[in-house]
Amino acid sequence: MSSEPGEATLESLLEFVRRTRGFDFTGYKRSTAERRIAKRMGELGLQTYEQYVDHLELHPDEFAALFNTLLINVTGFFRDVGTWEHLASEVVPGIIAARPPDAPIRVWCAGVASGEEAYTVAMVFASVLGEQAFVQRVKIYATDIDEEALEQARLGSYPARLVQDVPREALERFFERADQRYTFRRDLRRAVIFGRNDLVQDAPISRIDLLVCRNTLMYFNAETQARILRRFHFALDDDGLLLLGKSEMLITHADLFRPTDIRRRIFHKVVGPTMRDRVRIMAADLASGRDAPVSEALRDGAFDAGRVAQVVVDRDGTLVMANERARHLLGLAMRDIGRPIADLELSYRPVELRPRLERIRDDRQPLTIEAARWRPASDQERVVDVSLTPVHEDGELLGVSISFDDVTDLYALRTELDDSKRDLEQAHEELQSTVEELETTNEELQSTNEELETTNEELQSTNEELETMNEELQSTNEELETMNDELRQRTFELDDVNAFLEAILATIGVAVAVLDRGQHVQLWNGQARELWGLTEEEVDGRHLLALDIGLPEDRVDPMLRACVSDGGSPQEAVVDAVDRRGRPIRCRVRCLPLSSHGGDVSGVIVMMEAVEP
Prior knowledge:
Strand content: 15-25%
Number of strands: 20
Oligomer: single chain
CATH architecture of the largest domain: 3-Layer(aba) Sandwich
CATH class of the largest domain: Alpha Beta
Structural class: alpha+beta
């Protein structure tokens, strides 16, 4: 299989490290390895992998720095505290209840780095079992590939900043304090056994009840993950549990593990019906997958090679797999699985696949068709890159993985898009790791500190400006308070005037209505309500003659008009009316023009009073 020049150079570097130091990093995700090595090369001012290999040969102590860069030792006590609370309340009691009272309990913590996670597991079991039973029954095997980190873990001593996430009760119970450092109790420490173990190459620890491997698998590619998970499956007892990190899932390994609590990433081992089936999983790993069924190898290889929309055909040209994106983009259905590709439209659209599949069967080399233009049914024209990748094992062709990469909108940025797609596959998992690396990097902390000092100076300057503005605002506020006091005093005076006016209207003893020039009611006293049966709210703003009262319109309207006309004069008349009880009455109506300050008539005061016949 052909490869890019940069990839071949990276492979040569990783092979050199494996050959000279016995560390095999070829199973790491390509984007992770490239980024971490590029970081180290940048610190040394080196541009190419060849230069870095030469540097390693001349400076053997550089291997330690390289390993520290690749092995991201990010850990902590009680990381994701909700998971540990669930472990203490549900999982560990379940493990204890399922075993005889004196039966040993074996725990494997893989990828423990400096040991915080192993000691967290110890505290959980000791809290549930009790300290004496914990020492007698529990063995915790804590492993990592980094000897330097293991040396620190064996000491079990941590500064105060690293134990700040340990609950106070647990800190006082399980740690001894000396000179600003906290050391895990020696009598409990004997239950935790630290040792080096390469998850890819070394044999797994067997008969494990609980296997904790959090945020370690996400740094390996899919093939290496599958190999490690087969080892984990072999290591666990039949009722054993696997606890992963919150960024890790086992979607494609349902034959090995089934989820017990998917939100907290707790999985149960899937037990084969016979001992032969159980051992076969481990045997397949030791033989690098050679004894696995062809369908399993084909599935893993095809989906590892695919990027976006992906289908897989076997060596006879039968469609055996198609992911959801492929079914949507290419118009495939589940009933098409198992049909010869020659019978499907896929065989010639968007590109002619049949001759290319024959070519791959002959020379076993991958093919790429770039910028294939294609117009799906009832859709706009698309541009896709089609990649055909042979999937083979031990020199035998198993099938071909075909991926369709839609580059319609980003064709002009093809190179950047390819890099982004590779990185996005691990973006979520590596985000947490990157944040924690940034938090523990002294160089970045120092740089941040300098930036904060600069920002502080700017904030001091801004603060002085804000103080000046605050003084101005205080002065303005005082002026507003003075104005507010004046308005409050005028409001009190207005309230007094209104109360005085209401008292006058209430004591007049006749019904009074004040109208504007349009004869709309502006004021309606209590006697008017008693006489006509309408409240002030019912008449407010309404035309007097439109109200349902017993005044004759033909008699009152001329009087009102005469009052509001220029030079209007008072009007008075006694008219026949009907009061609020429906009784006929004689009503004296007096209309007085209401003059404004300029002398113009602004309304009418209407006084109404029932008189004796």
